[in-house]
Design brief:
The structure holds two protein chains of two kinds.
Chain A: E1 4-7, E2 10-14, E3 19-25, E4 32-38, E5 45-51, E6 56-59, E7 62-67, E8 72-77, E9 86-93, E10 100-102, E11 106-111
Parallel strand pairs in A: 2-11
Antiparallel strand pairs in A: 1-3, 3-8, 4-5, 4-9, 6-7, 7-8, 9-10, 9-11
Chain B: E1 4-7, E2 10-13, E3 19-25, E4 31-37, E5 43-51, E6 54-57, E7 65-66, E8 76-78, E9 87-94, E10 100-101, E11 105-109
Parallel strand pairs in B: 2-11
Antiparallel strand pairs in B: 1-3, 3-8, 4-5, 4-9, 5-6, 7-8, 9-10, 9-11
Chain lengths: 112, 110
């Protein structure tokens, strides 16, 4: 079946450095890719998304890139801050449905 | 401010009890979902609904049941709770793009 692979599972960076999380999807019919941030004790929150007709999207310190040919998409966080510490999930909208396939999550720790 | 509400936030209950986890959204979304999140973080779809009187089982088999009598309300019920049901349960809804998640219910069955 369709799946989304996410790497790394844990990531530690120094405050101010950049963080990159990578995902690979298998469903060639997927055309929408959201990213979620889950803080401790809360539900995941949508932070950025990208559609398959766009290669890159940026919102302040976060950006997402998509390579549809390779079925890769990545989250980039620049100038990381301690409040960026959380679990991040990538997702792909399953083609022809309203269901999302989630990656397995990345626990990001920003060290002050 | 949350537009999707889950209650209770935390629940500790004895084995064999019947429980209902509540989920309500104020956004008028037709599509609603229940996910189970294990300690390893992964999200597993257990139920979803695309509208009133429409419910489907998700990818992960679950002994829970759901109902969708009103657009805004999507409760999840366990008829007889067991320790294996201990988990975090997340409700979500969607309009056109992405999910809006509730804060979750952390269920512990002792």
């Amino acid at each position: 079946g369709e799946n989304v692979e996410q790497h790394p599972s844990t990531l530690s960076v120094q405050e101010g450095d950049s963080a990159v999380i990578k995902c690979t999807y298998s469903d060639s019919a997927s055309n929408y890719f959201p990213w979620y941030k889950q803080e401790l004790g809360k539900g995941p929150q949508l932070i950025i998304d990208i559609r398959s007709n766009v290669g890159e999207k940026k919102d302040q310190r976060i950006a997402v890139t998509l390579n549809k040919t390779a079925k890769h998409f990545s989250l980039h966080i620049t100038e990381t801050q301690p409040e960026d510490s959380a679990v991040y999930f990538c997702a792909a909208l399953k083609g022809g449905t309203y269901k999302y396939i989630f990656g397995t999550g990345t626990r990001l720790k920003v060290l002050a | 401010e949350a537009d999707i509400y889950q209650t209770p936030r935390y629940l500790v209950i004895g084995t064999g009890k019947k429980i209902t986890l509540e989920c309500s959204q104020t956004m008028g979304h037709d599509k609603m979902y229940w996910y189970q999140q294990d300690p390893g973080m992964e999200l597993h779809l257990i139920h979803y609904s695309y509208g009133v009187n429409s419910t489907e089982k998700g990818d992960l088999s679950s002994e829970s049941t759901v109902s969708r009598i009103r657009t805004e309300h999507f409760p999840l019920t366990l008829e007889s709770a067991r320790p294996s049901h201990t988990s975090q349960y997340l409700c979500a809804s969607t309009g056109y793009e992405g999910y809006t998640f509730g804060s979750g219910t952390r269920l512990t069955v002792v």
